[in-house]
Structures are given as structure tokens and as C-alpha cells.
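Forwarding these from the shared drive since the link keeps breaking.
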Amino acid sequence: TSPGSIYYCEAVVSTQSTGVPNSPISPYDIKHIVEFLVDEGDFFEIMPDYAKNIVVGFARMNGETVGIVGNQPLVAAGCLDINASVKGARFVRFCDSFNIPLIILEDVPGFLPGTQQEHGGIIKHGAKLLYALAEATVPKLTVITRKAYGGAYVVMNSKHIRADVNYAWPSSEIAVMGSKGAVAIICRGDPDLEKREQEYIDTFANPFPTAKKGFVDDVIMPRDTRKRLCADLKWLRNKSQKNPWKKHGNIPL
């Protein structure tokens, strides 16, 4: 079967090996995930040497052009900082301008902490990416590959900002923060923090509590991701969404 058909989508992903480590703190290259998903493994990255903790670029899914935005765990653990937010926002606005669907690959532990980021205006610049994704009216699909923590989870095309479809892999964790930090706050003074942390992991460190609340559409196996994304893009091809009328928005500049 030739590229550009839904049958090709089913055939191309025959392996479960995606390169995502079992350990939540082990790095991996998000570009391997992109190549695992797109037509012919062909990804045209934009601005590869700037803000390397986020990856943006163009590819094809089932023969159609799409824009890819992904957190890069190899650099700063994939945290969003000022430069990454601006880079991502600029790319999202470009895709929305030319009606190019967006696929977001999410593995984000939060916004990068530190006084340098705060003095540089991380809240203002981080809001640019939030604004760009919230305002975009093109098809917007999200796949959570591992971590989705805190405010950065909301920013990376969550259901809270009008994402069309959100998937999570079984390896994903959707929470305010990591289990270790959460248990240190919730169970402060408990003599057996390791046991409490394991209980927290068993209960919350998975995508199912979020799926029950409707913020994740489905928990899917990595091998099914490409097929599901291709089908969703076909379904959303004629998507028509309009923002409330006004002269223009007030993006945080």
C-alpha cells in the first residue's frame, strides 16, 4: 500500500518500541517519537539550534501536512522556559495562519524554575504559547507520552484550552507535580515516606484519573497512535471553529 492511505497508517507502526524509558527521570529523544509517527519517518525541523528543549517542525500524516510541537526531554528535561515558549508560540501562530493542523507531543515537567526566568518574564512569555494554542482554530491533537505536570500541562494543548483530541499513553502521568514532591508536602512528617510515595504512584501516577474526568479522550498503546491520529485528522479535515468577534486579540507581548 502506498503512503497517503489509512492502510499505510496501520501498517507502518508495527512495533511497540518507542524509545520512552520506563523510568520517569530518564531522558529520551522526542524526535525518535516523531519519526515513529509521521509518513516515511520524515520530519523537517524548524529552528533546531534555538530553544532545544522544544521541537517544532513540519511532517506529513497520511499524506497531509501537519505541524509538530514536542517537548524535548534531552534538554532541560523538556521544561518550558522563555525561549521555548516564544519559539512554540511563533510556530503555532504560523500553522494557524496557513490552516495547518497541529500535533502536540507532550512530556513536560513544568516551567523552568529560577530567578533568571522570573526576572526575564516567564509568566508573560509563557502566556504567549498558551494564547497561541487557545486561539488557534485548526485541528489540534495532543499525545501525552510521559509527564504532564502543573501549569505547563494546561499550556501544552490540554482540553482546558479547546484541544480537539487528547490521548495519553499508559506511561503518562498527569498531575500538579511529581510524586516525590507531592508526597513530601501531603505526608510531611510521616515516618514511612517511601511507602506513601508508592501508594501515591499506584493511585495517581497514571492517566486514568484524568481520563475519568474527561480531560483525556482515550488511553492508547503507542503502536496505535499513528492510526488514531490519521483517522482524527481525516475527521477534523473540515473543522470550522470561530472565535468571538472582536477587532483582534490582545496577545501578551
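-- next protein --
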Amino acid sequence: IIRKNQKRNVAWLLIVLFHHYHFAASAWKLHTSWAANPNQKSVLAITSLPQAGILATAGHEGGTIRFWKQPSRHECRPWNLLVATSNDDDNAVHTKSIFALDSHEGTKNDHCYILSGSLDRSAIVQQILFNHDEQNDNAANDSLKFETVATLPEHTGWVRDVCTVKMSHNDDNCCCYLSIGCNLINVFTAISKTTLRLARLDAGPSSSDEESFRRHDILCMAVVADDMIVAGLVDGTLRAFATKWEKWKAN
């Protein structure tokens, strides 16, 4: 009797383990895949625009940003391309590859903002206006309109990373933008479409030796608890900067 019970228990255990691992593996399967760039150029940046229910992607494609609409969650098919801003139209903002994207919501549900950083050494903020599809509450096809609200040109190098810091949910102007140029983090904002550089954070120390100098280039950054900016450098170090948002804006 004991042996029969043991065999029965082992059989049930094997069944449970089979179903557990089968469903666990199924949950991690690739949902869908599609070509983001027609010429198989690398995708370097991606950001979500939740208010519009869309995704923005960019990379080694001459400054093009593509905006995608998500299909139904139950549909395993590629996302729909809404629009691609390229050098050939009025919505293009960069002339070279885009390394970084970030976004933040607007004060109303009919617009949001996207920040981009490029190989052309500029960082640009665009306001995106959109109409909602009443059936699924996403941005409707051909409904996106773009307006540049801030441009920070002449970075000291490629803009490898960008970040937005929204300090108020009631005022679109209460937002700071961060962009990397070589060993510097630029802090800027936009007031009535006028771009104001608030601060430059230097990762230093610098050196007359070019190779040593390049080791202090900043590759990435993150804002921590709104009071600290942490940067990752080529030389393998992290640099933390205390934020002074109100003081920077007051100056």
C-alpha cells in the first residue's frame, strides 16, 4: 500500500511539475516581433507615450523618429506605424542618428512631450498633440501634430542620453531637461518656447591628454529621488551630483 501511494504521489508530482514549467515557459515566450527600421538600421532609443497609447523609437536612421500604435493586447501582431518624422518633412528635428529618447505627460490628456538627443550634438523637446480614438482611447491614425518647444544645440559631443524631470503636474513649464555632451550634463528648461540653460555639471577632472580626457565622458545618467543625478562614465566610475532645481531656475 505504501509503495502504491508513493507511486501515485510521484505521478501527481510529475504532472504538477510538467504543468508548472509548461505554463511558466509559455508566459515568457516572445509576444511579437516586427521591423522598426526598413533598412535594418539599429534601434538605439525607445520611449513610451502612455497618454497617447503609443511608442516612439529611433536609431541609426538619419534623425527619424517612428511612432507606433499598440494593437489589442490579445492580438499577436506587429504594432501599427502611425507616422515617421524624417529629414524629408517639416516634423524632423535632427539631421543625424538619435541616441536617446525620453518623454513626459502634459497637463491635459491631449498632449505630451518627447525629448531626443542626437549625433548632431543637439537635444530637442517636442510637444505632441493628438486626437483620441474613442473606441480604444489611443491616439488615432494620422492624428499626431508636432511642435518644437525647446532646442539646446552645440553640445560638446554626441548626446548619448537624455532625461526629463517634471516638478509639477499642473504646469508644463515646471520641467527640467537633462542632456549629456561628453563630460558634461546640461540642465535646461523652456519658458514660452525660449530655451534656457540652467546649469552644466562637469564630471572632470579634465586633462590635456585626449585619451585621458575621453575617459571622463559620460555615457548614461539617472535621477534618483529627485535630489540626486548619478552619471556613469567611460572609465567605469559613477559620479553623483546634488540637484538644485529651484536655485538653478531662480538664476
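The first helix runs from residue 2 to 27. The chain has a mean pLDDT of 79.

- D.
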